[in-house]
Amino acid sequence: MVPGAAPLDDPALVLAGRRILDVGPARRVLAGFHGPVDDLGDVVLVPGLVNAHAHLELSHLRGQAPPPAGFCAWAGWLFAAARDTAPPDVLAAAVAEAAATGTAAVIDVAGRAGPAVARALREAGLSGLVCREILGRRAGLSLDLPPQLVEAAGDGVTATVCGHALYSTAPELLRRVRAACRAHGAPFGLHLAEHAGEMELFTTGRGEFAAMLAGRLLPKDWQAPGRSPVAEAAALGLLGPDALAVHVVHLAPGDADILARSGATACLCPRSNARIGVGVADAPALAAAGVRLALGTDSLASNDDLDLWNEARALLAAHPGLPGRTVLEAMTINPARLLGRADLGRLVPGSSGGWAELPADLAALLA
Ligand SMILES: [Zn+2]
């Protein structure tokens, strides 16, 4: 993942926990090293992975989602199911699963359980960003981070706010959220263009999803802007190199170019999209347009596990021609860059993300 650097054959890494102190040809690195040495055998090592979208506080809902029947059905189920958040032992198990499968950092979206999520990440030695999710129509809503969340952050776990979605949150509020993210030196995350109902709502104002929102999350005088969610996000000034657009499954012609021109990162969550039944993001078209991609598991309310390699497998199963490098970058250097973390996503001295082992069945990623 280091631009211009070739893969190292027979390397050695010197580690203190997840911190990489040295990396290079084994002959050089081991010559001056006195300490325990683990020989990992014939494996391929890549940087510790970055899961660019999760909701760890929903981890207690693993295996409970109804069969895929579209976004409205799933959202209706979640609304009733997500009254509680995951207890500490479930959170710890979820984070341990992510860590055991190579994840070094998580960009997490949290409601009430943000402090518990931050603690769980730190206790497992993971880093990342915990985002307090903002939703609603009160443009003047306080965007202050809860003191408990600020207190729980540290050790490479930082905190900020993020927007829920265009349809649920007032434009003025989303602009303020983005400004707050900038003040925190953090990216601005937003669920965007996840399902067909969202496209229908923004282009025509009609449909099942519009009916579901009417009088609840949408004000009575709301008018459809007559353009796609991505075009609307751009028109509202919400896209840019600091933006993390999550899902982007439903694009109008030209939307991939809008995302590419803005410099936004698109986070794909293929298994979540399949579990909810909202379609398949056109990853090859996004990549061809020059959109920077990231990969996320989303929550266990719409996924079976937090193994980011399984996300890569799903992405490749849907798009066998997607270049391996594009997929690896989506799991490492791209989300690291979005986070402004030079110490993640690369196997270099000073990295705090450690390494992950490339599963043998994913060797094609190196092609
Ligand atoms: Zn999400």
Write a concise synopsis of the structure shown:
One of its GO terms (molecular function) is hydrolase activity, acting on carbon-nitrogen (but not peptide) bonds. By secondary structure, this protein is an alpha/beta fold.
What is the string of helix and strand elements? EEHEEHHEHEHEHEHHHEHEHHEHHHE
The CATH superfamily turns out to be Metal-dependent hydrolases
CATH class: Alpha Beta
Structural class: alpha/beta
CATH fold name, please?
Answer: TIM Barrel
Largest sheet: 4 strands, parallel
Ligands: zinc ion
Q: Could you give the count of β-strands?
A: 12
Widest sheet: strand ordering: 4-5-6-7
Task: Give an overview of the whole structure.
- This protein has 367 residues and is an alpha/beta fold.
- It has one domain (46-342): Metal-dependent hydrolases (TIM Barrel, Alpha-Beta Barrel), CATH 3.20.20.140.
- Helices cover 35% and strands 18% of the residues.
- It has helices at residues 26-31, 71-81, 88-100, 114-123, 147-152, 171-184, 196-204, 208-213, 229-235, 255-262, 270-276, 283-289, 308-318, 324-331, 333-338, and strands spanning 11-16, 19-25, 45-47, 49-54, 103-110, 127-134, 157-163, 188-192, 243-247, 265-268, 292-295, 355-357.
- The strands form four sheets. Strands 4-5-6-7 form a four-stranded parallel sheet. Strands 8-9-10-11 form a four-stranded parallel sheet. It has a two-stranded antiparallel ribbon with strand order 1-2.
- It is globular, with a radius of gyration of 20 Å.
- It starts with 10 loop residues before the first strand and ends in a 10-residue tail after the last strand.
- 50% of the residues are buried.
- Zinc ion binds next to loops.
